[in-house]
Amino acid sequence: MTAIAVTIAGSDSSGGAGIQADLKTFSALGVYGASVITALTAQNTRGVTGIHDVPPEFVTAQIDAVFSDLDVGAVKIGMLSNAAIIAAVASALERYRQTNIVLDPVMVATSGDRLLTPDAIDQLRRLLIPKALVVTPNLPEAAALLDTAMAEDEAVMRHQAHRILKLGAKAVLIKGGHDDGPESTDLLVEPNTTTRLSAERIATRNTHGTGCTLSAAIAAGLANGQNLTDAVRGAKSYVTAAIAAADRLSIGSGHGPVHHFHRQW
């Protein structure tokens, strides 16, 4: 049977993040990718110049079209820019009884541009986090979800992850990429276990779409039948290699994309 994953996210017109990054990641990892577009963004490697939200009823129509026909093995959720879209996605996923849900709480682009309205954060907490198999916040996103200061060490990262677990998520992958130091360390925190995943920090400005790519890679692993820990380990390895190969590409004049097809090209 063909492994299928669906991304529910915003479109990145420059191709490095969002829907485009997710579909590239699925393909690179041997998974058929389908998509539900929640917003159109006008952006490039230098920043976001415009956002056009898709009407919630059309987001629902896309979900109905995909899930009524395709045998979906995993769902990655990315940019959901307002409360109405979050409500529509939550309702539809409940209707189709999806359980392999990877929620990337996208709030700010690599360029610093805000992608989520402040009033939508509460909807994210109440409606989607309880449905997620794993939530994948970076340090600023975890702080925003909890309305607290950004974690400065692994002990606080673990504490914040447990607070997000109490919101209903089954697991939390809190990402340390915004931290300093020679290593980039993520923590996969489940109710009774913590798995530490570290990789050498790579000096490059080409990190556009890293969060999207990681969450999509986790979804690809789940669609391929892996358990959560193995899917996260594989995704971490894939993204690290994609960042290491990013400078082989020459894309734009700002934060360029990671190299999704570093194994194939």
How many discrete domains? 1
- Strand pairing plus helix content: what structural class? alpha/beta
Q: By CATH's scheme, which homologous superfamily applies?
A: Ribokinase
Extended strand count: 9
The unreliable regions are none
Distance between the termini: 26 Å
Please give the radius of gyration in angstroms. 17 Å
Oligomer: single chain
Largest sheet features = 6 strands, mixed
Architecture per CATH nomenclature, i.e. the level-2 architecture: 3-Layer(aba) Sandwich
Question: What can you tell me about this protein's structure?
Answer:
The structure is a single chain. The chain is 36% helix and 21% strand. It has helices at 18-28, 56-67, 83-95, 120-128, 139-146, 154-165, 210-223, 228-244; strands at 4-12, 32-44, 47-53, 74-77, 101-103, 134-135, 172-175, 183-189, 194-200. Strand 2 and strand 3 form a beta hairpin. Helix 3 (83-95) packs parallel to helix 4 (120-128), helix 5 (139-146) crosses helix 6 (154-165) and helix 7 (210-223) crosses helix 8. It is globular. The model has no long low-confidence stretch (mean pLDDT 94).
Itemize the secondary structure elements and their pairings:
Layout: E1 4-12, H1 18-28, E2 32-44, E3 47-53, H2 56-67, E4 74-77, H3 83-95, E5 101-103, H4 120-128, E6 134-135, H5 139-146, H6 154-165, E7 172-175, E8 183-189, E9 194-200, H7 210-223, H8 228-244
Parallel strand pairs: 1-2, 1-4, 4-5, 5-6
Antiparallel strand pairs: 2-3, 7-8, 8-9
